[in-house]
Predict the 3D structure of the following.
Amino acid sequence: MLSGKDSQFLTYLSTATDAGRIPWQPTAADDQFTASLRGKYNVVVGTSREGAWLRMSNEQDQVMLFITNMDDPTDRVERILNAARRIALNVDTAIDEIIQEE
Amino acid sequence: MTQFDWWTIVGSLASLDGFGLGLYVLHVAKDARRAAREARVLARKRNLAEELEQARKNIELVGDYLNKKEWLAVRIRAQEIMTSCRESLTRWPDGLSEIRKNDVLSASSLVHSIADEAAAPDVSEFKLAKLKRLSNTQLQAAELLSGALGEARNRVEEEGE
């Protein structure tokens, strides 16, 4: 069950990611991306059999928040994961490269 | 002199030797204790730049171990890097700019993902693409740590001037 703050956080992440303000990077794991915020927090988004998930930890590597897509009826975790993938893997640049006219 | 006197002399010499040896052992033990204490003080005095330098050296080693597919060594070094990153941020909270602190956090997260992959049950069957991704992640973490180390060194130099 999401708290109001958790929901606010998901909205912030989704909006900031769409606006390109979060520098997501690919990790060594399949379909998993990471970004750090405010010099104190780290967020990892990934996917498992149950769907997308998001984990936030602090500078001591303690897990502060773990949200799965099933916790959020509006699918924001899934959307954040998709947007993070686009940024981390430079999907738009790849598409531009493919479709550019010679 | 009687045989009894000889044994007394031998016994006295032996006990003197024992006493001398005891003093020597005590001296060595005190030296070792002092050296351990000095090492602890030195470790406490280790500054941010040195901590990050250690992390940078370890990330290079992770690169070597990835090439050699020495997965246990990868995990051990990764653990050390994560500890260094954590120490850097908690012991010197004002030691780096927000951007560089983000870099240290991200480096730690990337290294964490390398360690997780190195612990996978199918690690010996990793395909070339997977190994390449691990290597790229290691390089990315190395770059982030180098940036943070550069800033930490600059600050040390500025403070020294």
